[in-house]
Amino acid sequence: MSSTQNNHLLSLKIAQNSSDLSQALEHFYNETSHLVYRYCRKKNISPADSDDIIQIVYTQIYKKRTLYNEAHSPLAWLYIVTRSETKDYLKKQAIYSGYVSDYKEFTHLSQASPDSPINYQEELYSDVQANLDQRLNETEKSVIEKRYLEEKSFEEISRELNLSLVNLRQIVSRSLKKLKK
Fold this sequence. Notes:
The protein is mainly α.
């Protein structure tokens, strides 16, 4: 980190008027923004999103300028702000993408005929069935299906499969642990 970058960050911190503040931020931005851009591109972030992140980072630098501790390198502080803002940006993008996906699914459903049946239970059952087949033995699969897909009580399942309630609860617990892995 050059001494001029350090000076610009310190000037930014202690600037008394808007002109000095603007000039210090501009100089610091000009000397360091390429580093933020390279960091973003190394994380496989698109150029447009990288530009957005740069704007966010330097906005945060401006807002938090009084928190900068001169005992630490301005480059280290810039890195911490960049890393934090990049993570936040990517999380927001992922959430937004989820909303877009949900919206597309919703509009697809809204375009379907009102008379066409939508059977979510069948879709859920097929997804669960595929997971059950891969991870559980026949007894465990049967117990989980009866308990969660058919929504039967432990007593009903106990009678149907001729298992004690204690044994049945152990099977359910063990099966759920397998499915979580």
